Amino acid sequence: MDEATWHRRTEWPLVIASLAFLIAYSWRVIADLSGLARDVTTWILAVTWLLFICDYVVRLALARFRGAWFRRHLGALTFAVLPTLRLVLLLRVLTRIPGMRLSAGAALRTRIVVYGTGVAIVLIYLASLTVLDAERHAPGATIVTFGDAIWWSCVTVTTTGYGDLVPATDEGRLVGTGLMFVGVALSGVITATLASWIVERASRGGDDAEPATRGQVRELIAKVDALGEPVTGSERTEDPTTTPD
Amino acid sequence: MDEATWHRRTEWPLVIASLAFLIAYSWRVIADLSGLARDVTTWILAVTWLLFICDYVVRLALARFRGAWFRRHLGALTFAVLPTLRLVLLLRVLTRIPGMRLSAGAALRTRIVVYGTGVAIVLIYLASLTVLDAERHAPGATIVTFGDAIWWSCVTVTTTGYGDLVPATDEGRLVGTGLMFVGVALSGVITATLASWIVERASRGGDDAEPATRGQVRELIAKVDALGEPVTGSERTEDPTTTPD
Amino acid sequence: MDEATWHRRTEWPLVIASLAFLIAYSWRVIADLSGLARDVTTWILAVTWLLFICDYVVRLALARFRGAWFRRHLGALTFAVLPTLRLVLLLRVLTRIPGMRLSAGAALRTRIVVYGTGVAIVLIYLASLTVLDAERHAPGATIVTFGDAIWWSCVTVTTTGYGDLVPATDEGRLVGTGLMFVGVALSGVITATLASWIVERASRGGDDAEPATRGQVRELIAKVDALGEPVTGSERTEDPTTTPD
Amino acid sequence: MDEATWHRRTEWPLVIASLAFLIAYSWRVIADLSGLARDVTTWILAVTWLLFICDYVVRLALARFRGAWFRRHLGALTFAVLPTLRLVLLLRVLTRIPGMRLSAGAALRTRIVVYGTGVAIVLIYLASLTVLDAERHAPGATIVTFGDAIWWSCVTVTTTGYGDLVPATDEGRLVGTGLMFVGVALSGVITATLASWIVERASRGGDDAEPATRGQVRELIAKVDALGEPVTGSERTEDPTTTPD
Asked: What is the ipTM of this complex?
């Protein structure tokens, strides 16, 4: 079995594993589980995480050119190593919904908006869970409810940083640092996408005002070539006719 | 009656309803109304809100292709569902003021600046009203005057977030979250518009240095075609003249 | 006397007036003047401010088409109405330093960087003076030294907003609001200038890989026209030579 | 010896000096050295700093056109004057790792990402060391551990600014101001790089849909010229043949 076949076949099982991970983690943190229930969620998280790591290892083993596959699938590595980010894979499924016919630019921007929004929502949600799990029972913690955690994540990802709620633990600070840089990157994505749209719209005139294409010039070169050949050809055939004269 | 006619006819009544909504809401919150006066503003808000929802439903019903109309008028849905955002419709009227002749890019940027400034002012104002209404009488609230609310909104929408004033209620936090993301989007719009302007200005040389247009190449192709035809034509007429020779 | 002559002649006196304004305002606020010295600076500020307003009114009166002049010189109006912003005019002088030969894009970006840096420095400095003047003797104020004011201005203009120092007066909050929005705009200018530079650099290949210019195609059209004319011309002169045959 | 030879030969020694500077400074601050160990690090820092200044002076002296060299190597001046920033030179070595074949735009963006990430990491690390050194023993300081310093640097460079940790000394505030502006610039670099990538991707069609190149048009002009010459030439040779008739 080759890597592509494996990837196609494991896609849906992995989506279900992602959902299991998400639900188990949400339940564990929001309900602040303890005892047996906490142990069960620990097992679910461990098993689903292991599934993703195995999937990555199998794909790497099945790939023909492992070096090239590794370099081209850095995203897959990220999904495999960080259990929280892996859920973004769900969005790949969401973006496959058939849409209207779009230009290359519009299609790219649509994908960026869908993925970007999805990544932002998933990361804010998971960061909220992780920070709440880390902070809740820490001494001097201010983030003690799920509402607090969501509010803090939004305040952090937009780099607003009121400072009313601040992580007190190292784990919370790590989540915060990640969220801030993700926020800077996401605001860059928003701005760049808008810039691409505005630049495209601003240059929109009639098709006649668009920059000439290479295709057009190739067509022209062919025409000029065709023009040159018969002319010199007919003159050559003319020359003999005139010489016998 | 078709959808376009309805839209033209209901435009001004809806602008007046928007203003009524804005004035009633401002009066209600800033004056911190109670008793009968509060009930009157509640009624005005409810009726104007209902007007917008009815307008949306009627337009959808009148549209020929409802699916296509729905996808193309997501903005109208936003205006209908969220009473506060609906006032941005006023700006549509403002941008119709006839201006100077502008290039496609300059016209787009002018519209973006006018709409963007308008959206920012309306959202900051409405967010200030909403947060003041939510916070004012809440225990432990710091946003207690209209001046506080405006200052907090500006601090939030620019993602500065001093933290001197922070919402204490869930409704206030919701308004804050909205404002932060709007702020990130607005700063993206500012940057992207500036980038479009700079890119356009930076590439400005003489017209001779601009990228060749498709129109120019089409003109050239036609010329080459015209050149090719009479030449071979005259050669054909020449051939018989030379053959009789 | 026409508007351009007036503008040339009043340029240097106004630069001196700007400097007088800046020095008087700096001295007044930093030294926390009182009594006679404060009155003297009040007079200097009032006179220099009046000079700028008079200059604007005279320029408007001298302009041929007042409507067009007004629309084209909104910057001059800003400089005339807001005394603090007027000092940015000094930068106009600074950017006239002759530099190296630059492409249109590089020249534009150089101007943006010089003006932008200048505007940022002037605004941060003036905002620091204004906020210090407003806050210093206010009850509950945290911005009480010039160092505090500069730090607060930098924290505000970059939209960092620690919240360790926060304006307590309405005037201070107004200055803060202005600084935040200026900060958003300036960060947009930085980003857009970088984007223009990167887009230009990214598309740089050999000159042969650059988009074809309109000038090139015009040269080509002229060549094709020249090619078409003599050919049909010589054929016409050939036709009579062959017909007598 | 010319400047280029000197630069090639001193490259590796300077990298080692940079590393020595970094290790000495890290050890000094993190271990909070005192007595002899502190004096030793002071000497290492002084000597390595002096090495860089000497290198700059020698390069300037060896340059043929000193004015032009000075203007073209403002970066080298920055590295020589500010000891902390000088370590960024290490990245120049890192970016020389041979990569895959990339388009001009992709190569530029790769360099920007590598350098940008490196500059960000070095600056955050050095700012953390400097602020910790300045704050640790200051009265009323909140940044007292290396973890605090790193967290504060990340909160500052992303312009989040919670305000839980704020510098209390002038030196700390100076570092903070630098970090904030670096943060604004870095987020601009991220956004601009993303914009360049999106604009390039958005305009990607087949090669035929790319803007026509100057090279193509030059090829075409040569073809048209070649077409014009033989035609008039053969007509000239035809003319004599017909005139003798």
From this structure: 0.78
